[in-house]
Amino acid sequence: MKLWGGRFETGPSEIFERFSGSLEFDRRLIGADILGSQAFARALEQAGILSAEERARIVDALDRIREEAAGPEFFEGAADEDVHTLVIRKLKEHAGAVADKIHTGRSRNEQVSLDLRLWLRGECDRQHGLLGGVMRALLDLAGRYPDAVIPGYTHTRRAQAVLWPHYLLAYFEMFARDAERFAEARRRADAMPLGSGALAGSGFPFDRQAMARDLGFAALTANSMDVSADRDFALDFLYAATVTMLHLSRLAEDWILYSTEEFGWLELADEVTSGSSLMPQKKNPDALELIRGKCGRVLGCLNSLMVTMKGLPLTYNRDMQEDKEPLFEAAVQVGGSLEMAGAVIASARLNAERPLAAAQESWVVATDLAEALARAGTPFHQAHQLVGKLVLESVRTGKKPADWTADDLRRFAPEFTADMARLLDPREGLRTREVAGGTGPGAVARALEQARARLAELL
Ligand code: ARG
User: Fold this and answer.
1) Which of 98, 124, 140, 406 can pair with 421 through a Cys bridge, CB separation 3.0 to 4.6 Å?
2) How many Å lie between the centroid of ligand 1 and the Cα of residue 321?
3) Which residues neighbour 428 within 8 Å (Cβ) at sequence distance 6 or greater?
4) Over 80: is that where the pLDDT of 442 sits?
5) pLDDT grade, residue 222 (50/70/90)?
6) Nearest CA to ligand 1 atom 11
7) Using CA positions, which residue lies closest to atom 2 of ligand 1?
């Protein structure tokens, strides 16, 4: 069946049908398409196009189609151009001639917009929930090692000591912003487009407010041409998905490193790692590598739709059918990656003595010492120079911070006072960083408490 054809002398070629059809992927929208068509039938009744009895027949038939569509053979052999055409064909089979009225004053252009918006609302909620799972796993992991100390890095060089929970909370913040982005993407999708027609507005006096209430939309779209031309809401979702993947990818990269034999900080669970077909000793971080790899794919989806939309003349162009595969692809990949990351985080174990030793063996305490000197009155630039010299001397003589005594320090420079020697232990310097958002134990405990409350509010 076609939703058009009168103007043509011959039908489309097999090659064109195969090339242009979208049912293979837009079948995912069938639930949304049925919901939208049922609401549209009610609007047609209000507008005097359908009788109450006709409307009931259509709505009931669509209910039955929804049930059938859950079965495995529903789409088998279907040769319809797209999901909208398929639903109308099925409606004809179930409800008879009245089905010919369902498309009165409606265009597939607004229908695609509606279906995508309905689908995206649910998808944003799903990703939001999955993000909550990852955030909870991070907080649980932080709670298991509340006092663990690691060297924080800049330039992949040991920089300053931080608490392990502080490091995990950095990712918590990223995912909290991602959750906000998905909520914002949902808000932008949450506008009801029906009544726009193909591009000029419907020729029938629909009560658009009533349709929006019926479908649970928070707002109405304001311009019919914009509706046919707009995929911003899909881009918003793809952007949220891409940034989420970017954060997951950075976590994956960190943890791939931290679980190497060279680092030895993290032990990834057997359940989320795999072996080698040749090398019996291997335990590979494939789950994390796949997350990192899929980030590229999702970014490609955003890029793909951006490029598709760039330069399209108003309003609808068939190019826009290319919106769906990247959108679905991104949703599947970000959802799967969030689930996987949640499982990796929940099952990870920290060998806390390793990162502590890494912090103690290096000069991450240098800043603590320089700041202590500055607190005692040495101008910071001179304090920096002085500690730099101390580090240089240590590098020359092979001394670790713990090899220095208070007396050694004072002999090295009179600016060092006896109490500064305790800062040679990286766990001590941490305590000076109680500024809000810092890695001081009190600040981190408060941040953890706030994070737990924020998570409870989010979910
Ligand atoms: N399958 C099409 C899509 O997803 C439906 C819209 C078709 N509209 C049209 N004017 N050809 O974009």
Assistant:
1) 406
2) 6
3) 368, 422
4) yes
5) very high
6) 318
7) 321
